[in-house]
Design brief:
The chain folds into two domains: 46 residues, no CATH class; 187 residues, Up-down Bundle (ABC transporter transmembrane region fold), CATH 1.20.1560.10. Helices cover 73% and strands 0% of the residues.
Length: 324
Amino acid sequence: MDETLRYDNPNPILTANVLSRLWFCWLNPLFSQGYKGRLEEADMYNVCPSDSSKTTGEKLQAAWDKELHQPSPREKANFLRALYRAFGAYYMRLGLMVLCESLRLSNKSLSESSIGQIVNLMSNDVAKFDQAMMFPHYLWISPLICVVAVVYLWYKLGPAAMAALSLVMLLMPMHFLFGRLYSRHRQKTAVHTDKRMKVMSEIISGIRIIKLYCWEKPFGHLVEKLRRLEIRQLRRTRYVQACQMGPYYAASRISSFLFTLTYVLIGREDEIRPGTVFMVVGVFQTLCFTCGIVIPMAAQSLAEMLVVIKRIQASFQPGFSSYF
């Protein structure tokens, strides 16, 4: 890999102290220069050595080699396990790695792949990692928030809180069910996108022959048909996503109504005060947001990431040659 730098501008974060890193003061010279005039490419800092494609690629290569040489022949190589070993909780920088691997694919791999599939893998699939890595911490923070909210509501409302909490708890299995459906539809959408990208790559490669024989309309109809199938599957995916997210917007209102109705039915309507109502509504909104938005989005993002991992592993399986 060509590691020649066009401009040598060391990154100041390497020499910044703790306070400078904490308050991002090491960026002040760049901001000051941008305020005075237009920033040029030469003004940008070099990438930190720990973030360079060479360092991260070698880590992942070593982890994957370890997976390929498992002591037990029954245990298959797992790309997700290799990612975890190489990077842990850090963002998984796969863009440059996929590019390097695509440039060194074996003949067998090239026969099973296309430029369109590689571009789709790099542009759409790898980008899902950035989205998915925003949510893993919510998977362990959200249960703590739910426990604190439930204890607080029980302390303030007593048994009347269970009527509203039961609605929130009933939504949880539904969210995970729709999360699994979303993962399946997302995988089907990726298959349709790969087919369309493959055909488009072949059309662009043979555009002269197509123009020579006046095949524009037949190939145009073919692309239109593939795109229509892709949009149809994408629409189904968004329907599932809407069914997963939709109940949140009604759950907070319905839960507030249920707790008020329960108070009236058990004869404690005299204890309802404006301060209690505002407090309970705020807590229920937090609880519904956690259970109805954060947890489903975390599950959905992780499901997408697993689909991407399977696709990347499938593209690497025929030949994972050394690329550094």
